[in-house]
Amino acid sequence: MQKILAALTVATVVVGASSASAARYYEVQLTGTLVSELGYEPWQLNTGIDPTFSVGDKFSLTARFEESQALDFNGGKVAGLYGFPTTGSQFWRVDAKGLTWRSTDDTFDGFPLDIASGSYALPAIFFSGGKVTGLAGELVGPSTRPVLQLASFRVEPGEGLYGNLYNSQGFQGVWDFSGSSVTLSGVPEPAAWAMMIVGFGLAGATLRRRTALKPA
């Protein structure tokens, strides 16, 4: 019994320390659907038959970021995700029909994220009660992608903005906020995993040593 208690004590201390250092992440999923064409006249924008999109196409927004990225905002949270990559432990992206929009495509290039002062950089996600409640920002990119207005969910040709010459009549979409999800989960960091492994190793060594010293 004493051997078991000693082993459990070591394991408990290490696991407790590991839990304290584990990062917590928000994971976001949101989809939207194109519901109509914008109906621009030929003289207004670079119009034409869209080579990629049509009414009914789905857009998917996914994100994963540390809890510290989210600020209190109007009874909920807001996270400014400018500069995030499209993959990794923290990321942000919008995908549709083989195209991807990135946070670094935002038109407000260069604005910093300052958690201490309560400011954030676009694009941004607003959420509350486990649901996405709103978006902000305008995403542009190379000519293979149209402008994406996040808040109003408009897919626009862009009038050559930032070299964007996407030939499209443009679309209006609707985000499915009610079907979205925002979850907060804890994931042990590499250092935490290392501590846990060492802790269980120490527990095993303690048991083996006590067994070896046991009188015949």
Task: Please tell me about this protein's structure.
The chain is built from two helices and 13 strands. Helix 1 runs antiparallel to helix 2 (190-213). With 216 residues, the protein is of the alpha+beta class. It folds into two domains: 1-22 and 189-208, no CATH class; 23-187, no CATH class. Strands 1, 2, 5, 6, 9, 10, 11, 12 and 13 form a nine-stranded antiparallel sheet that branches. The chain has a four-stranded antiparallel sheet with strand order 3-4-7-8, with no helix packed on it. Mean pLDDT is 76; it is low at 3-20 and 109-113.
What sequence of helices (H) and strands (E) makes up the elements?
HEEEEEEEEEEEEEH
Average of the residue pLDDT scores: 76
The description of the largest β-sheet is: 9 strands, antiparallel
The fraction of residues assigned to DSSP E strands is 25-35%
Counting DSSP H or I runs of 4 or more residues, the number of helices is 2
Percent in helix: 10-25%
Rg value: 25 Å
Principal-axis shape: elongated
* Poorly predicted runs: 3-20, 109-113
State the domain count.
2
Number of beta-strand segments? 13
Q: Indicate the structural class.
A: alpha+beta
What keyword list fits this structure?
single chain, 216 residues, alpha+beta, 2 domains, 9-stranded antiparallel β-sheet, 4-stranded antiparallel β-sheet, 13 strands, 34% strand, elongated, disordered N terminus
